[in-house]
Amino acid sequence: MRYAFFEGCKIPFFLEKYGRSSLALLIKFGVEIINIEFNCCGYPIRDIDFPSFILSGARNLALAEQKDTAIITPCKCCYGSLKFVENYLRHDKKNRDHVNGMLREEGLKWDGRVEIKHLLTVFHDDIGLDALRSSVANPFSGLKVAAHMGCHALRPSHVTRFDNPLMPVVLDDLVAVTGAESIHWPMSTECCGNPQWDKNRNLALKQMQRKLANARLAGADCVCTACTYCQMQFEHKQSSEATAGNYQNPIPSILISQLIGLSVGLSEDEIGIRDAHLKKLMA
User: Fold this and answer.
1) Do residues 213 and 169 lie in contact, with contact meaning Cβ atoms separated by under 8 Å?
2) What is the C-alpha to C-alpha distance for residues 72 and 26, in angstroms, rounded to an integer?
3) For 155-180, what is each residue's pLDDT tens digit?
4) Are residues 182 and 110 part of one domain?
5) Which terminus, N or C, of the chain has the lesser number of Cβ atoms within 10 Å?
6) How many domains does the chain have?
7) Which sign, positive or negative, has the C-alpha torsion 154, 207, 231, 229?
8) Across all residues in the chain, what is the average pLDDT?
9) 37 φ/ψ sector (left φ>0, alpha ψ -120 to 50, else beta)
10) Which of 42, 44, 32 is nearest to 5 (CA)?
């Protein structure tokens, strides 16, 4: 298995442990990682300058095609953006020709040959559940986990083609291989609130608090994410609100790459777990 690792913009600066734990786990299971100097996926300017958004995404796809490799990304937002650009170019010849005309200045071209995969798909399908399960050295028996899939990779489903948008199962399956129980909780597919953070902070916090209260009510010991923005919401925002005295009874949040990493014997340093509460929970 050979992939170009598309880390995105947020992970290196705000969630470095997601990139670190993802790479450590991929390398452990023999995945070859190709380094390409990608640019932004384009998402931040999608609603400001749509043609620039398309060009930004197309350039990344063309760079991967130039190296004859598929793309793997742990970021749901980047995955959704790149899949959108791929779908757009595939169905709009006029704009495809226009974008390729601009890419030609760098000796690049998008032909539609590059495959875009989210980290979860590689864990679930390429490495495989059986291989992961057989490698578990530290099973989390008795741990109840609220699996939070996130929105960006699920919708629009005809574009992302990732999982069932109404009843996703990929993350639940991956939680289960660690020996933990992926519990049923009614608000599992609702938004974490992060997209509203810069527009309506109170609404964003209410969405987060409702979700976490629902997870706690369902018996969860922790929330497990596979989305940069969701993890930042549950970890950073919850922590800052609890510190300010605005939120009681916080619930830990762990990345799926960390949960699997610990279960197969990777160290806390290798996967970036430093939170004392989380360390105690996972011990």
Assistant:
1) no
2) 10
3) 899 899 889 988 999 999 999 999 99
4) no
5) C
6) 2
7) positive
8) 93
9) beta
10) 32
